[in-house]
Design brief:
1 helix, 7-stranded mixed β-sheet
């Protein structure tokens, strides 16, 4: 537009000098572009309903039986999680069993005794433990049976639990209060461990014969007994 006006001015000056008239030039109006049509919004599909998770049933694993005689190292393909290890030994001399994790990392000395033995001990009770191998020191025949933890003996409080040798048992019912232990007919080391939701506590660790009473955490749900001979535990509740 500015160029057009300047051109008109120049032509006017030329016409005045020449005595001729210059036709007027009318600028062409600028036509704004037509607005484009906005497409209609698309419909958003409704979210699909998520199905509820179905309850899964974890079957109880089958026991694992290992047998042998004399010194031995045996591998085992055990499920992950806590279990019970039931051991028997019919020979003489020292009988010791050690369990190992992957890479031959020693976990625990499970049994260390002299002569014939039968007992049950905890296996892989801690989350960081997973047994893949046993080392056995013996001079006679032995058996190791790995049992699911679900098979643990359960008693309802208050009660008196009798046993012989190493053992593991769970308690149900009212909160535990006192434990009265009688290992007057046993010999050697006598120990009682109590397991709660926060861990384990060594309640008794004495040389038999032993009798005594100790306090219990009301959250106790499991006992592990280490003994050489008969014992009795009178557990009260509150």
């Amino acid at each position: 537009m500015k160029r057009l006006l300047a051109l008109v001015a120049i032509l006017t000056l030329i016409s005045l000098a020449c005595g001729t008239s210059v036709p007027s030039v009318t600028p062409t109006p600028t036509v704004p572009p037509l607005p484009t049509k906005t497409p209609a919004p698309t419909s958003t599909p409704r979210p699909t309903s998520t199905p509820r998770p179905t309850a899964t049933f974890t079957p109880i694993p089958e026991p694992i039986l290992l047998t042998g005689s004399g010194d031995s190292v045996t591998d085992v393909d055990k499920w992950r999680g806590p279990a019970l290890l039931h051991l028997t030994y019919t020979g003489g001399g020292n009988f010791a069993v050690i369990n190992y994790a992957a890479g031959n990392q020693r976990i625990d000395l499970l049994v260390n005794t002299i002569g014939a033995y039968e007992g049950t001990v905890p296996l892989d009770f801690l989350d960081t433990e997973h047994t893949v191998r046993f080392e056995i020191h013996a001079s006679g025949a032995w058996t190791l049976e790995i049992r699911p933890f679900a098979t643990v003996r359960r008693v309802t409080l208050p009660t008196v639990v009798n046993g012989k040798g190493d053992d593991v048992f769970a308690v149900t019912g009212p909160n535990p209060d006192l434990l009265k232990a009688d290992a007057s007919q046993a010999k050697g080391n006598f120990a009682v461990w109590a397991w709660t939701s926060s861990g384990r506590d060594l309640l008794i660790n004495e040389i038999a014969p032993y009798t005594g009473t100790v306090l219990l955490d009301g959250d106790t749900f499991l006992f592990v007994v280490v003994a050489d001979g008969p014992w009795s535990l009178d557990i009260t509740a509150r």
